[in-house]
Design goal:
single chain, about 350 residues, alpha/beta, six-stranded parallel beta sheet, 15 helices, 6 strands, elongated
């Protein structure tokens, strides 16, 4: 699917299905809205699926994996070779995200969007890593669109295979640098405010990271009003794929769970490309990275979990799955006031 066509066909949530879901929640024999956000998310999913009888038994985590040329600037603690090693571990379910998926009954789909070497992952490689954004644009506009459309395609395939709920994840040494650059541009905030230590940088490493981002933004002049331009000039192929997953979720009427900082950047960029796509996103947790709360505020999202997580890989997003399952179980299985021959609670002023 072409990006322009997808964006043109993304529609608002089904308000009538959402109201029917609210009506059902209010008929359940418990105090009104006493499950808070767990009720709200079921109502949201009803609007997404256009049916108050929500269904999301088949879940998947899509992990977009790619390398970032900006590592040349000394902005990471580990070498670029780690991207391929960890990404391969997803296939063996040896990485944290794989273990969490196994525990929650979700399937895992690691995708090679641009790892700097050949891998055993599904090969959707745009190139062998991005260019060094501190010296030139990270990618061409055509590559950025290709990456987004790849993410959309993956969602379409998973929809066809019966998946009903997706989580987003990523793996790529140096991707907090590209994500911080995108966050600085999209939020119009100073680089220092949105840049953290990533996977454990020293103070000297953090300064290198900040300076590399400032240099990249100054050199490439990304247009904050054009999400594709921001992605192309200072982003990554993993971010491109994630943006596509968010847009694909909206197009195919599938809820997509946002992970942490990097996933939030992709979600915000997707919303700049197609604002209606925000309604199809569910925010899982707030990351320890400094820009996370700013990004969530810009998205208008409230999280379910505050666990001080900052691992990435989709770990925070998958951690939300059991809560969603419990909310769904109550929504479908609890008796109603009518079943108990009780007077229903009334909304009081």
């Amino acid at each position: 699917m072409k990006l322009e066509q997808v964006c043109a066909e993304i529609k608002p949530l089904d308000k009538e299905a959402m109201q029917r879901a609210v009506t059902h929640w209010n008929s359940i024999a418990k105090p009104l809205h006493s499950l808070g956000k767990l009720e709200d998310v079921i109502v949201q999913i009803a609007g997404i699926q256009r049916n108050e009888r929500v269904h999301f038994d088949k879940k998947g985590l899509v992990i977009l994996c790619a390398d970032n040329g900006v590592v040349e600037e000394g902005v990471t603690q580990s070498g670029q070779e780690v991207t391929a090693i960890v990404s391969e571990n997803f296939l063996q379910e040896k990485a944290t995200a794989g273990i969490l998926c196994r525990k929650t009954g979700a399937d895992i789909f690691p995708i090679d969007m641009g790892i700097a070497q050949d891998t055993s992952l599904r090969n959707c490689k745009i190139a062998y890593g991005t260019k060094n954004m501190a010296k030139e644009p990270a990618m061409t506009r055509e590559q950025a669109i290709q990456g987004i459309e790849t993410g959309i395609q993956i969602v379409g395939e998973l929809k066809e295979a019966g998946y009903e709920l997706l989580a987003t994840g990523e793996m790529g040494i140096g991707n907090t640098t590209s994500s911080s650059a995108m966050a600085a541009v999209l939020l119009d905030r100073p680089v220092e405010e949105v840049t953290g230590r990533g996977a454990g940088l020293s103070s000297d490493g953090l300064n290198k990271k900040i300076n590399a981002i400032k240099k990249a933004i100054g050199l490439n002049q990304p247009d904050p009003a054009d999400g594709v331009d921001v992605l192309a000039k200072v982003g990554g192929f993993d971010l491109a794929g994630m943006i596509g997953v968010f847009l694909g979720g909206a197009y195919y009427h599938m809820p997509v769970v946002i992970d942490g900082f990097i996933s939030c950047v992709a979600a915000l960029c997707a919303s700049r490309i197609c604002p209606t796509a925000i309604d199809y996103m569910v925010a899982s947790h707030v990351s320890k990275e400094p820009a996370s709360e700013m990004l969530l505020k810009a998205l208008g999202k409230e999280v379910f979990l505050t666990c001080d997580m900052c691992l990435g890989e989709g770990t925070g997003a998958v951690t939300l799955f059991p809560l969603l399952d419990m909310a769904d179980a109550v929504y479908k299985g609890m008796c109603t006031f009518e079943d108990n021959s009780m007077d229903a609670y009334q909304q009081l002023d």
